[in-house]
Amino acid sequence: MVCTMAFLRALISTARMLRHSPPLSAGLPADDAVLLDAPDERLSPALVAAALGDHGPAAALLSATRDAADWENRDRYLGRLTTFARHRDGWLTDWLAAAPRDPDALLVKAELAVRRA
Predict the structure, then answer these.
(1) pLDDT (tens digit, 9 = 90+) per residue, 70-83?
(2) 116 CB-near residues (< 8 Å, 6+ apart)
């Protein structure tokens, strides 16, 4: 009986705490008003240009991150560009045709192959 009373006391105090505390979502924006993982000011123009069929800004973006050794952003940009290339295969094909030895285009191609495997 002693063991049961300890659990009852814990249950009552938890219920009392929940009843008297404010809702967790008070003061937060609505879920549909929050954009998670939004493209930054460097990635957005590259994605817009890619949607128009231009691979130049994406090549410049990945080249800049490689030259600056900005590996964290490079990985994030690579992921977004690979996702784009997965849905628009002609874009990457055109990029590889224009620059067959571009290491950044080859990186996107390799990442795309890994994701498709």
Answers:
(1) 999 999 999 999 99
(2) 86
Q: How far apart are CA 52 and CA 46, in angstroms?
A: 10
Distance (Å) of CA 76 to CA 11, 79, 105: 45, 5, 15
pTM: 0.68
Stated length of the chain? 117
Q: Rounded to an integer, what distance in angstroms lies between the CA atom of residue 76 and that of residue 48?
A: 17
**Residues 72, 73, 74, 80: is their CA dihedral positive or negative?**
positive
- The pair of structure tokens assigned to 14 is 């938890």
Distance CA 114, CA 20 (A): 51
- Note the maximum CA span of the chain: 79
